[in-house]
Design goal:
Blueprint (H helix, E strand, L loop, with lengths): L8 E5 L3 E8 L3 E8 L19 E6 L4 E5 H10 L1 H27 L2 H13 L6 E2 L3 H8 L3 H13 L3 E4 L2 E4 L2 H8 L5 H9 L15
């Protein structure tokens, strides 16, 4: 989905990870949120806006997605109060995730920020291997390529992951959750509270209400 362009289609991914990014002319692109099979693109349509300043694209290939044109999608929302309510609840989880990303990037060290994003990607893929380039990881945690490389070595040395060219293997999710701390878990708990089961979290109790 291109920024500022009228939305013609809505996508429901069946796997993989999609990135929502903000582009700043002098600073480049930074990621503000992600979604996968639990979510849907173009949430701005649910808030009566026909376009967004953000760009959305597939970061980790999930092979397929269900697509519907914007007009019949909006018509279905008008016809079904239940569908509309569930999708508005999903918008709430997106807003919580964006707020959590802002707080985490402001207050957490780079190691904790990367651990959080790896956990979020892990929640949305099958298995423990994630196809992620250094470029995408830098965009995810607002860091340059060299910072990503050093941080990957730290996480790998601690036995949390194994990093190869363009791929990260999650080896110890519990350690990643400990490192991420309170940066991870709030949006995931909100999704489970409002919509249903989600993620592979092993430390859910801290955020469940």
């Amino acid at each position: 989905m291109k920024p500022h362009a009228p939305i013609e289609h809505v996508y429901f991914p069946e796997g993989g990870v999609c990135s929502i990014t903000s582009v700043v002319a002098q600073s480049g692109r930074s990621e503000t949120g992600i979604f996968g099979l639990e979510g849907v693109s173009a949430t701005c349509l649910l808030l009566a806006a026909d376009r967004s300043p953000h760009e959305t694209f597939v970061q980790v290939d999930g092979a397929t997605a269900l697509r519907i044109d914007a007009e019949p999608y909006l018509a279905a929302l008008r016809q079904s109060e239940t569908l509309h309510m569930v999708l508005l609840r999903y918008v709430q989880t997106v807003l919580v995730q964006a707020a959590q990303s802002t707080a985490t990037n402001a207050h957490h060290r780079i190691e904790a920020r990367l651990a959080r994003w790896l956990l979020m990607c892990h929640d949305r893929v099958d298995g423990d291997e994630i196809a992620l380039t250094h470029e995408f990881m830098g965009m995810m945690i607002c860091a340059d390529r060299s910072g990503v490389t050093v941080t990957l070595h730290i996480l790998e040395g601690a036995g949390m992951i194994r990093a190869t060219r363009g791929r990260v293997l999650i080896r110890n999710r519990c350690l990643l959750e400990e490192l991420a701390g309170d940066g991870y878990g709030v949006p995931e708990a909100e999704y489970r509270r409002l919509i249903g089961p989600f993620g592979q979290a092993t430390a859910r109790s801290r955020f469940e209400m």
